[in-house]
Amino acid sequence: MGRWRRLGPLPFLIGLLWVAVSCGSSTTDTGTFTLRLQEVTHSPFYAPQYVALTQGYFEDEGLKVELLDGKGGDKVTTALLSGEADVILVGAEMTIYVNGQDPADPMVIFARLTKRDGSFLVARQPMDPFRWEDLRGLQYLAQRKGGMPDMIGQYVLKKHGLVAGKDLEYLHNVDYANLGPAFISGVGDVVQIFEPYASTIEQEGKGYVVAALGPESGDVLYTSYHTRKSFLDAHRDVLVRFTRAIYRGQQYVLTHSPEEVAQAIAPQFEGVDMDTLIRIVTRLKGADVFGHDPLPPQGEYQQTIVILMDNGMLKEPFPYEEAVDPSIAREAMTPSS
To answer: Do 315 and 248 share a domain, yes or no?
Structure first.
């Protein structure tokens, strides 16, 4: 590339770009490949992935997927760069940030899971009917600075004539894992948060879900699967099989009722009662957040770039070809002969 683009909030990654990759994946005597997957958080927002896990779709492809909740985009990206993970599920912006530094072993987005933001706005008081203008002057408890949910939040606010930090107090001082507890304890008038935490706040009588961010921002290349080019080159067939299982999960979620989807993913959410899980899935399906297939579309990537630039995270567009390899998803979606 030979270019050094302005990065977002990830200077700590610079020192990790050239670390040696540890060997953690393996193939058993039975031919099963163990793949280490870290997700940015554990949420019903990723229902198609959990369907693939609980319905045996990965096993059908000869894969054993070891899933770990990485609890944050910076943490899972660090895990990938340091060799602790083979694949990560995180926002598309992470590969853009890293590859903008011309690493020797760049990251690659090879499939997408969701096509819209899946966060919700929770307010302390009912806001019915909800109007974005009514947020003026309030305290907005935001997502991690520089992450896609945060940028979506600011993009949507600006769309409705509100500038974060000017027209409303925009709080960046709480980390992702503590957003729910902080709001429940009294921090902020509204919080932008994911499920199941939004419903947990409602159940505790501490707030009300008043809006979905995804329909407001439109389709983008949102939560996607990333790997390193070296892993893709060495294990392309593994990634195709992985993506084929994800595609089956996406199709299941698309064609089944919220009740059926909730039943399928329930083993992944043992602390959430079935009625709540059905309500969460219904809310997510209503916001049309799930990708219908794993292909990372160029148009949705370009909208992601628009949002990054609008938030001052990039000085210039970053080429699709330098961040995304759609050939894995295309092959995974091709019917077997």
So the answer is: yes
Q: Which two tokens stand for residue 280?
A: 């969460």
For the sheet with 190-193, list strands across it.
169-171, 139-141, 190-193, 120-123, 208-212
| pTM for this prediction | 0.88
CA separation for the pair 252, 292 (Å, rounded): 10
4 assigned to some structural domain: no
Eight-state DSSP code of residue 190: E
Q: Are 282 and 212 in contact (CB under 8 A)?
A: no
Co-location of 110 and 139 in the same domain: no
Structure tokens at 152: 């979506």
Q: Sign of the C-alpha dihedral, residues 269, 273, 278, 279? A: negative
Distance in angstroms (rounded) separating the CA atoms of residues 86 and 229: 11
What Rg do the C-alpha atoms of the chain give, in angstroms? 19
Cβ atoms of 39 and 225 within 8 Å: the answer is no
**pLDDT digits 0-9 by tens, 113-172:** 999 999 999 999 999 999 999 999 999 999 988 888 999 999 999 999 999 999 999 999
Determine the Cα–Cα distance for residues 164 and 301; give it in Å rounded to an integer.
24
Q: How confident is the model at residue 55 (pLDDT cuts 50, 70, 90)?
A: very high
Backbone φ and ψ for 239, nearest 5 degrees, come out as -70, -35
CATH number, domain with residue 50:
3.40.190.10
- 193 is written with which tokens? 């948060």
- What is the amino acid identity at position 131? R
- Other C-beta atoms closer than 10 Å to the C-beta of 140 total 23
Query: Which amino acid appears at position 121 of this protein?
Result: L
- 3-class DSSP assignment, residue 26: strand
